[in-house]
Design a protein that fits this description.
By secondary structure, the protein is of the alpha/beta class. It folds into 3 domains: 4-195, Spore Coat Polysaccharide Biosynthesis Protein SpsA, Chain A; 243-395, Rossmann fold (3-Layer(aba) Sandwich), CATH 3.40.50.2000; 407-586, Rossmann fold. Helices cover 36% and strands 18% of the residues. It has 27 helices and 24 strands. The protein starts with a strand and ends with a helix.
């Protein structure tokens, strides 16, 4: 029996694994076994490891399908024979005295259950213990064998190794450090914690990396807890809707951003949904396999053949700037399918990232174009005249929530209890500077700031605002859609982005704040909250126009003006009732039939154009008048 079992989890690390294994073979302590568990790597890992299997201390096991870090380590633990367990992830590195120093540390203190080494990290930094901001890393640790096992993917996906396993060892004894730097946590873009942690990683990059079809429970050390299992159960467990006789086959191309379950409103109307997803999503770029089901994914490899075989009625390209390159690639393949492009944000980021030419081509060449606001449509018309053709254009906000979340009764307002006004900002407090919070406090107006992950991005802001208004800034955790009505209806009003427009009524001067409908608009509408924004009456501002048209909120320039309006009980009661009555317009379901009619219109126009293209330009006298009329109409097509 060996003294130490070294567990090596590996996935797609063919470029790293030689160095890791060689670092183990160079240890001064030689009484070890290496248990490599390959989590179904698609690369050359297996072939590389075979070169080392002549060493009887090295054992290799390959899983048939990817199961995640916790399951891999549990496989290895069950195979381990030694009383001491160490870890060597296949992208990390031992220095020659690593195992010996850990063994000596545990031998010196029998009451200790775990020893940890100092570690080099982030290329040239080091720590003699736990790295600041991270749990103890696998490569640092050796522990005595216990009956405990690692938390697996089916329970929770997390980068918190303390939560996954170290906490289970603490009741067994002390954790002690060697005080020696003997290993390296190798810094590279593919590290697991980077894949998991927002804002670079997150649940969607993780899902894509491992092609996971099941809903997840997901919680990293820097993000909010996400329970897709419970959140989407109502959708996932209902049967598929029976296809309508005239139902469309719709390919969702790109990503769905926020409120992705909204697309089920199309499936509920008897249309078939298919997903063709962008390859490298950000954490908020929702891609498939979708956790709520009812959407069939097309393969990322071989998608051209899959589209030709499927013969969809329409390709629906969406939604944000990250999807532009892939959507452009699919559109330019010219697969003979009507292509509709729906863009939410943001054209200015495309300019910055160098994808502006592709964005312009998407708008110019798409058979149908959907704009997130009328102002966005008019702005693009200044870029390429003709893009606002009413026969080929639609205005529809991109990521409206599904109607199913608009349930529940309103809560009593906090102002009814303490006599002061309470306002809310879900997400980033854009335009609400610390001195603005202080000005609110002077008027007896409280600000409730929701989003614990967002709080972490605004720590300096929070510190300054609390210093200026200690009793009027309140922090709250993120609230999911099912609690929007109950939670947010207790406030008097909600903040949109608070900014002073500089466009002076000229579209060329407009920026993203001027053109955008922020996602929180629907969040506030669902709870019947009047919205708050700066008075930009001399400028072109999309939210200003919409709020005026529907009479949904208040406009002001000073906090004293805001207080005066909030104190107008008759006006505020009217606004609350008005928002509540019209809140259905802020659901995707409300617009689903209009969107389907647009798809049909685009598909029919394309069919007419193709038919006319086959008609000779020299018309015989017996050509029916109806056909001639179609030909004349086709001349208006771009």
């Amino acid at each position: 029996m060996p003294l130490v079992s070294v567990l090596m989890p590996t996935y797609e690390h063919a470029a790293f694994i030689r160095r890791a294994i060689n670092s183990l073979r160079s240890q001064t302590l030689t009484d070890w076994e290496l248990i490599i568990v390959d989590d179904a790597s698609p690369d050359e890992t297996q072939a590389i490891v075979k070169l080392y299997l002549a060493d009887p201390r090295i054992h290799y096991h390959r899983l048939k399908q990817n199961q995640g870090l916790g399951a891999v380590l549990n496989w290895a633990l069950r195979l381990a024979q030694a009383p001491l367990i160490a870890y060597l992830p296949s992208d990390d590195l031992f220095y020659h005295d690593h195992l010996a120093s850990l063994v000596a540390c545990l031998a010196e203190l029998p009451e200790a259950v775990l020893a940890y080494a100092g570690v080099r990290h982030h290329y040239n930094r080091s720590a003699l213990g736990q790295i600041e901001g991270y749990p103890l890393q696998l490569v640092q640790v050796m522990h005595r064998r216990t009956d405990d096992y690692w938390m697996e993917r089916v329970e929770l996906v997390t980068d918190d190794l303390e939560r996954m396993f170290w906490s289970k060892l603490r009741p067994h004894g002390d954790f002690i450090g060697t005080g020696c730097l003997t290993c390296e946590w190798v810094d590279h873009p593919g590290q697991r914690h980077k894949l998991l942690r927002e804002p670079v990683g997150g649940i969607n990059p993780y899902r894509v990396r491992f092609n996971l079809k099941q809903p997840l429970r997901f919680h990293t050390t820097v993000g909010n807890y996400i329970d897709e299992v419970g959140h989407y159960r109502r959708f996932r467990e209902r049967p598929d809707t029976k296809p309508a006789p005239d139902g469309l086959k719709i390919v969702l191309l790109g990503e769905l951003a926020y409120n992705p379950e909204r697309v089920l409103a199309l499936e509920e109307r008897g249309h078939r949904l298919y997903g063709l997803w962008m390859p490298d999503p950000y954490w908020y770029n929702t891609v498939g396999p979708l956790p709520f089901g009812h959407v069939q994914d097309l393969p990322r490899r071989g998608w051209r053949e899959a589209l030709r075989k499927l013969q969809p009625d329409v390709i629906y390209g969406l939604l944000n700037w990250q999807a532009v390159p892939f959507a452009h690639q699919v559109m330019t393949e010219n697969l003979g399918v009507p292509f509709v492009w729906h863009f939410k944000e943001g054209p200015f980021i495309c300019l910055e990232k160098g994808t502006w030419p592709q964005l312009v081509e998407l708008y110019s060449r798409a058979h149908g174009r959907i704009y997130s606001s009328p102002e966005m449509r008019d702005w693009f018309e200044t870029i390429v005249p003709g893009l606002a053709d009413p026969d080929r254009s639609l205005v529809l906000d991109g990521d409206l929530p599904k109607r199913d979340w608009f349930m529940g009764e309103r809560s009593p307002r906090l102002s009814q209890g303490n006599g002061e006004f309470h306002t809310v900002v879900p997400g980033r407090p854009i335009g609400l500077h610390p001195h603005t919070v202080a000005a609110l406090a002077e008027q007896g107006i409280h600000l409730h700031f929701y989003g614990d992950f967002t709080h972490g991005q605004w720590l300096t802001w929070i510190e300054k605002a609390r210093g200026l208004a200690p009793n009027h800034l309140h922090l709250h955790r993120q609230v999911d859609q099912e609690n929007w009505v109950k939670e947010f209806s207790q406030y008097d009003a909600g903040w949109l982005h608070f900014f002073q427009s500089e466009n002076q009524g000229e579209l060329h001067r407009a920026n993203w704040d001027d053109l955008n409908y922020p996602a929180r608009l629907a969040t506030l509408a669902v709870a019947g909250l009047p919205v708050l924004q700066r008075d930009n009456s001399e400028a072109i501002v999309a939210t200003q126009t919409l709020v005026h048209q529907l009479d949904l909120g208040l406009f002001f320039t000073t906090m004293a003006e805001l207080r005066e309006q909030l104190a107008d009980e008759t006006r505020m009661a009217h606004l609350r009732d008005n928002v509540w009555r019209q809140r259905g317009q802020f659901t995707f379901d409300y617009h689903a039939d209009r969107l389907i009619n647009f798809f049909r219109q685009i598909a029919n126009r394309r069919t007419e154009k193709e038919m006319v293209a086959k008609v000779p330009l020299t018309w015989p006298r017996e050509v029916p008048a109806k056909t001639a009329a179609v030909f004349q109409k086709s001349r208006t097509f771009p």
